[in-house]
Amino acid sequence: MVKVKVDDLRSSHTASIITQATRNIDARALVSVDVAAKTVSIASKLDACRFVVAIRESGYKPYLIHTRRDHV
């Protein structure tokens, strides 16, 4: 699980853009956006940095606040 803080996450429109950016990296990722908390949680087997870069390239300022690898 990857958790990213995005201080400029302010609306459902922004949430939609960020969700699409993460799904462009991993179409199977489970993405949960909490606009009030300004966080994005991503369940994926891919490296967390890829998602941070994708969100940044979408025009936002993300930073990683949590990453955990679940062993399958």
Write the layout of secondary structure elements.
Layout: E1 2-6, H1 12-25, E2 30-34, E3 39-43, H2 48-57, E4 62-67
Helix pairs in contact: 1-2
Structural category: alpha+beta
The CATH first-level class comes to Alpha Beta
Number of beta strands: 4
The figure for the number of domains is 1
Strand content: 25-35%
The CATH topology name reads Alpha-Beta Plaits
What is the correct CATH architecture? 2-Layer Sandwich
Binned, the helix content reads 25-40%
Spatial strand arrangement across the major sheet: 2-3-1-4
Q: Short description, anyone?
A:
With 72 residues, this protein is of the alpha+beta class. The chain contains 2 helices and 4 strands, in the order βαββαβ.
Describe the structure.
There is one protein chain. The protein is globular. The chain is of the alpha+beta class. It has a single domain (2-67), classed as Alpha-Beta Plaits, CATH 3.30.70. It has a 4-stranded antiparallel sheet with strand order 2-3-1-4, covered by helices on one side. The protein has 2 helices and 4 strands. The longest helix has 14 residues, at 12-25.
Keywords:
single chain; 72 residues; alpha+beta; Alpha-Beta Plaits; four-stranded antiparallel beta sheet
